[in-house]
Write a structure and sequence with these properties.
By secondary structure, this protein is mainly alpha-helical. The chain is 82% helix and 0% strand. The protein contains 8 helices and no strands. The radius of gyration is 18 Å and the shape is globular. The model has no long low-confidence stretch (mean pLDDT 83).
Length: 192
């Protein structure tokens, strides 16, 4: 099924509606959809290398807007569904304690999820649930999604099809390792 979806996206990259499709996929992926926008973005940039940064910009804007939808889902659904369940089990105080801790480092969580293979939608919803500052959430989302999508665009623009396999198979791992090195370095400076 994934292979057919990938072949379909390669064909979609040639269509006049490809940029709209990318915007829709990037938007819904940030809150509910399981397929990342990279699956459409990569063949789109290969088909239209001159528009690489425009494509990355569309993916970024749509993804951040979709992230705000995810934030709203977390914010609205928690009060109507989540909190009553926690209260029923007497665990609402634990959530409040968790929310304080999460919000202390929430911008970092959004940044990490925005560039690594960790599902960004989980963090968008969790950020709304804990009521992370919306401006902090938006700024971290813009930084993370821009970094991710513009690096992919720059690599494809510069190296074209030969770098595609690396991006599809290894770039998520590279981003994850860089985040671990950064977090480890921050921890070492702060606590050692």
């Amino acid at each position: 099924m994934i292979k057919r979806l990938y072949q379909w996206t390669l064909q979609l990259a040639q269509s006049p509606n490809a940029l709209w499709a990318l915007a829709i996929v990037a938007f819904i992926e940030s809150s509910v959809f399981p397929i990342p926008p990279d699956i459409l973005m990569i063949p789109l940039i290969i088909a239209r290398p001159r528009e690489a940064f425009k494509i990355a910009g569309i993916a970024t804007v749509a993804s951040v807007a979709g992230g705000m939808l995810g934030y709203w889902i977390g914010y609205g659904a928690f009060e109507t569904i989540g909190r009553p369940v926690l209260e029923f089990y007497g665990k609402d105080a634990y959530f409040d304690e968790f929310a304080v801790k999460y919000n202390e480092y929430g911008a970092w969580a959004v940044l990490i999820a925005g560039v690594t293979p960790f599902p960004y939608k989980v963090i968008t919803i969790l950020s709304g649930t804990t009521q992370l500052s919306l401006p902090v959430f938006i700024a971290a989302s813009i930084a993370a999604r821009s970094l991710r999508f513009f690096i992919v665009a720059a690599l494809l623009w510069k190296f074209g099809t030969p770098i595609r396999d690396f991006i599809e198979r290894r770039l998520g791992l590279v981003f994850t390792l860089l985040v671990l090195i950064f977090v480890g370095g921050f921890y070492a400076v702060k606590y050692l």
